[in-house]
């Protein structure tokens, strides 16, 4: 008997929906997108209406085969992918590839509950062509931007780099912030605090001297200079002298001011605010937040997690208000439901905020048996934020007081203090929003002052001089970067989670705690883009593109002419040198690419910082193939990985250049007459016999012999005798009397071992390489071969706590390839910027989850080409010819495009 077929994106979502629909429906999953743009080359026919050239992903062929088989036995097809642009596009691609001969219906829902699924079945719609066009246009633009610009980066900076419509402006934001920190000069300023022994006690700070305001941090610019002349800047001697003439004096209340205080609840979560609060409160990365939120959505606990709407449905408003009344009482419930407007540029996502699913919200306590770890913590935060959004304002009062005293030498000193009292907590009973600044006061903090009136005397406070220094602008965290991108109108909810991770994967940033620190490679990339592709990293231009893309989606602007202008630009007469005229900004991206390939000088563009040295050559910083380095004349020195750009001063650079090069001459080998040199290598210290022959290509047989130092050896104290012993390896231990096969002792990449033919065994100690006898070797070879390195596992370096996903204890270990974290099931290497001593359980959990999410590499197979079939006449007339292939050195297209949004 034929049944309706329902297709969703994920197996988890399929299982949940199948449980609601029962045996009357067949529910299958597409496991995400089934096809995408051709990964090799541009994948877009720019000469024929910018027709996209789609191919079926090789790993999805079995999926399509399974879906086609299921469709043969179906009497209806329901496409139940997500309700945003990306989900609509998946449904359209399924329709194009499966070519169903049965009625097709599009069912949409923003929560996976029994009632929502049944309503979606009962009230289906057609595929929204506008959403499909919006997604496709963005995908085409991302490829036009990402692929060719990434090729320029590969050729001019380094391989493996990428550019993207959202990614590149985001990298520029991080680099610009670091530039601000590098230019920053701290200003020192002093004041004093007066601690009054009242009930309750309070502390006031010096605010004025002789009726002139005392400078605070906000009164200095980034170069450490006062911004204004009407403030008093005090140094340490002046303040200590002021304290000495003020001690023992009586302060009198000069003024008091009391004001009512009101704090309103924040709106329910949208994607960006959920990621920001997840970072602040739960110490989760943006990608972690979205992974956990997706699991909660697919299992029916929350509504759809990619949205920029703060609206709550009538059902949700009723559920939230009922819980406020039941849990907190009628005094906490406003007379009418609260509504919120959130002005996000280019809002095109789902139409309800992120909230608990269902007609009645389940409390976090009621789900303690079903959810655990990050899932429960994130649900708890979403539930609290939703309920709090429908509660009364918090109310209280703020008090400011000024007190004055006359010093023994006749000067007028004035101190000030402020307090806040919450008289009715309102929504604060349920939820308090976090802050990016760890020193910021949260909304639920109270500061109490005693009752004071003008003229009151407070004698003999304790005075303490306090020194301060201005701070450089704070580096971006994932949360604050997403907030800034949203403010600028750059990116969409679907890209916010992926951008910080992509920046790390490409080597543009490293994490220091939660801060994003740009690498010198990021400086080179941003410098290239600013100088040769300025519009592409211009924030206003990027936001304006979002507006224009939405005009295309609304049919207010034609897609092909817009793309043609972006790619080919305005016609120009050229500038006489065979290259298009790009000086007036009228050239398209293609002309800029051609121009860039011709004129960009890699040596110049990779000179990312110049440090002047008096009386000597300047020091320049370059991102090299094997890491960033300093160059001054003929001298070079590597820049340590843990040295942030804003910490590299001229003095530090000279210190690195003046340090020993790492090469130490030990003597001459008596047998060959060659020099024996101790060197510092990328993988540790080693000794070398002779010099490397000149020339770029040296045959293996002509390369000098090398040997790694043992773990207990030190390069600085290494003797010639020890070096020659290392270079003598491998050592012939003897021959097996049974068959005459030679046994050797060798020092390998994974430690010392012995080898007989193709058989090998690990040795427990490196010293055995020189002391092992033939009998001992035969005994070791006679033992069964053990898995691993054949020695006892080393104890963990640190224990971090339970992993929120597996629940198993997470530890830090030292492995063959360096330090890593593990929960016993999954291993993840520490990345650049991670340190054994400071890594947190939150960061370890992020690394482990990234490792779990990384799909194993699959063998490439020939890809099936699928021409783009669209409903519009312009698309039907698109030619099918493939874009010309790029040179072998060009990047894969997937390296140069943001996630489609």
What does this entry look like structurally?
This protein is an alpha+beta fold and 901 residues long. It is 31% helix and 22% strand. It is built from 25 helices and 34 strands. The strands form eight sheets. Strands 8, 9, 10, 11, 12, 13, 14 and 15 form an eight-stranded antiparallel sheet that branches. Strands 2-1-6-7 form a four-stranded parallel sheet. Helix 6 packs across helix 15 (520-532) and helix 9 (286-298) packs across helix 11. 36% of the residues are buried.
Secondary structure blueprint with pairings:
Elements lengths: L2 E6 L2 H11 L4 E4 L5 E3 L6 E2 L5 E6 L4 H12 L1 E6 L5 H14 L5 E3 L7 H9 L6 H28 L10 H17 L4 E9 L5 E8 L2 E2 L22 H11 L3 E14 L7 H12 L3 H13 L15 H15 L44 H16 L5 E13 L5 E13 L32 E3 L2 E8 L8 H11 L4 H4 L1 H8 L3 E4 L2 E4 L1 H13 L6 H15 L5 H10 L20 H11 L2 H4 L3 E3 L7 E6 L2 E6 L2 E4 L11 H9 L5 E5 L6 E7 L2 E6 L15 E4 L11 H8 L3 E5 L6 E7 L2 E6 L2 E4 L5 H4 L2 H9 L15 E5 L6 E7 L2 E5 L4 E3 L11 H13 L10 E4 L5 H4 L25
Parallel strand pairs: 1-2, 1-6, 6-7
Antiparallel strand pairs: 3-5, 4-5, 5-34, 8-9, 8-15, 9-10, 9-13, 11-12, 11-14, 12-13, 16-17, 18-19, 19-20, 20-21, 22-23, 23-24, 24-25, 26-27, 27-28, 28-29, 30-31, 31-32, 32-33
């Amino acid at each position: 008997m034929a049944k309706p077929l329902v297709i969703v994106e994920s197996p988890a979502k399929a299982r949940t929906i199948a449980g609601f629909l029962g045996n009357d429906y067949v529910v299958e999953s597409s496991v995400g997108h089934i096809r995408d743009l051709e990964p090799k080359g541009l994948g877009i026919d720019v000469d024929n209406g910018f027709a996209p050239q789609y191919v079926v992903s090789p790993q999805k062929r079995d999926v399509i085969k399974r879906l086609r088989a299921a469709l043969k036995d179906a009497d209806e097809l329901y496409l139940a992918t997500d309700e945003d642009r990306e989900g609509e596009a998946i449904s359209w691609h399924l329709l194009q590839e499966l070519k169903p001969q049965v009625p097709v219906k599009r069912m949409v829902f923003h929560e996976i509950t029994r009632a929502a699924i049944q309503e979606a079945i009962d009230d289906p719609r057609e595929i929204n062509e506008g959403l499909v066009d919006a997604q496709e246009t963005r995908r085409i633009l991302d490829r036009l931007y990402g692929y060719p610009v990434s090729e320029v980066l590969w050729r001019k900076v380094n391989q493996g780099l990428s550019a993207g419509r959202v990614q590149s402006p985001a990298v520029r934001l991080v680099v610009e912030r670091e530039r601000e920190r590098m230019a920053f000069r701290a200003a020192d300023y002093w004041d004093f605090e007066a601690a009054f022994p009242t009930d309750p006690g309070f502390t006031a700070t010096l605010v004025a001297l002789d009726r002139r305001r005392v400078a605070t941090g906000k009164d200095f610019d980034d170069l450490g200079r006062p911004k204004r002349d009407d403030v008093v800047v005090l140094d340490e001697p002046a303040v200590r002298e002021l304290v000495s003439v003020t001690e023992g004096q009586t302060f009198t209340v000069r003024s008091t001011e009391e004001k009512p205080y009101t704090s309103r609840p924040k709106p329910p979560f949208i994607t960006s605010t959920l990621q920001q609060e997840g970072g602040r409160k739960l110490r989760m990365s943006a990608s972690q937040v979205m992974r956990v939120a997706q699991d909660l959505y697919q299992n029916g606990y929350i509504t759809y997690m990619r949205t920029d709407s703060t609206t709550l449905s009538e059902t949700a408003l009723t559920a939230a208000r009922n819980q406020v009344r039941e849990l907190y009482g009628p005094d906490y419930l406003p007379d009418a439901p609260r509504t919120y407007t959130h002005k996000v540029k280019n809002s095109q996502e789902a139409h309800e905020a992120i909230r608990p699913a269902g007609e009645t919200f389940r409390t976090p306590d009621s789900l303690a048996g079903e959810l655990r770890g990050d899932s429960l913590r994130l649900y708890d935060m979403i539930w609290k934020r939703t309920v709090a959004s429908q509660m009364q304002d918090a109310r209280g009062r703020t008090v400011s007081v000024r007190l004055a005293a006359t010093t023994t030498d006749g000067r007028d000193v004035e101190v000030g203090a402020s307090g806040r009292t919450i008289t009715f907590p309102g929504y604060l009973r349920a939820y308090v929003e976090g802050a990016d600044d760890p020193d910021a006061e949260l909304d639920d903090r109270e500061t109490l002052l005693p009752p004071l009136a003008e003229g009151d005397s407070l004698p003999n406070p304790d005075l303490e001089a306090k020194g301060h220094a201005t701070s450089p602008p704070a580096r971006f965290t994932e949360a604050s970067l997403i907030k800034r991108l949203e403010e600028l109108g750059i990116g969409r909810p679907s890209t916010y989670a992926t951008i910080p991770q992509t920046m790390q994967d490409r080597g543009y940033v490293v994490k220091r705690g939660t801060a994003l620190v740009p690498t010198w490679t990021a400086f080179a990339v941003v410098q290239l883009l600013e100088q040769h592709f300025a519009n592409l990293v211009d924030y206003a231009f990027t936001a304006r593109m979002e507006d224009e893309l939405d005009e295309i989606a609304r049919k207010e602007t034609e897609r092909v002419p817009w793309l043609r202008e972006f790619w080919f630009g305005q016609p120009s007469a050229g500038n006489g040198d065979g290259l298009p005229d790009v000086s007036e900004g009228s050239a398209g991206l293609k002309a800029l690419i051609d121009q860039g390939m011709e004129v960009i000088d890699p040596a110049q563009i990779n000179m990312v910082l110049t440090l002047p040295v008096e009386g000597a050559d300047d020091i320049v910083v370059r991102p090299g193939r094997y890491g960033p380095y300093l160059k001054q004349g003929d001298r070079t020195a590597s820049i340590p990985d843990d040295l942030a750009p804003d910490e590299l001063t001229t003095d530090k650079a000279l210190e690195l250049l003046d340090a020993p090069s790492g090469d130490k001459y030990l003597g001459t080998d008596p047998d060959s007459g060659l020099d024996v040199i101790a060197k510092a290598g990328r993988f540790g210290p080693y000794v070398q016999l002779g010099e490397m022959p000149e020339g770029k290509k040296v045959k293996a047989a002509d390369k000098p012999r090398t040997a790694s130092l043992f773990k207990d050896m030190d390069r600085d104290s290494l003797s010639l005798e020890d070096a020659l012993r290392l270079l003598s390896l491998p050592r012939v231990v003897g021959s097996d009397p049974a068959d005459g096969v030679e046994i050797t002792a060798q020092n390998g990449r994974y430690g010392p071992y012995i080898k007989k033919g193709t058989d090998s065994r690990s040795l427990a100690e490196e010293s055995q390489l020189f002391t092992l006898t033939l009998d001992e070797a035969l005994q070791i070879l006679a033992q069964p071969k053990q898995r691993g390195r054949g020695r006892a596992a080393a104890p963990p370096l640190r224990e971090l706590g339970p992993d929120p996903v597996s629940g198993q204890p997470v530890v830090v270990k030292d492995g063959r390839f360096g330090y890593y974290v593990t929960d016993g099931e999954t291993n993840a290497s520490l990345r650049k910027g991670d340190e054994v001593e400071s890594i947190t359980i939150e960061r370890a959990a992020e690394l482990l989850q990234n490792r779990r999410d990384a799909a194993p590499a699959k063998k490439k197979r020939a890809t099936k080409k699928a021409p783009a079939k669209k409903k519009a006449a312009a698309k039907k007339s698109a030619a099918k010819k493939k874009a010309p292939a790029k040179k072998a050195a060009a990047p894969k297209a997937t390296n140069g495009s943001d996630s489609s949004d």
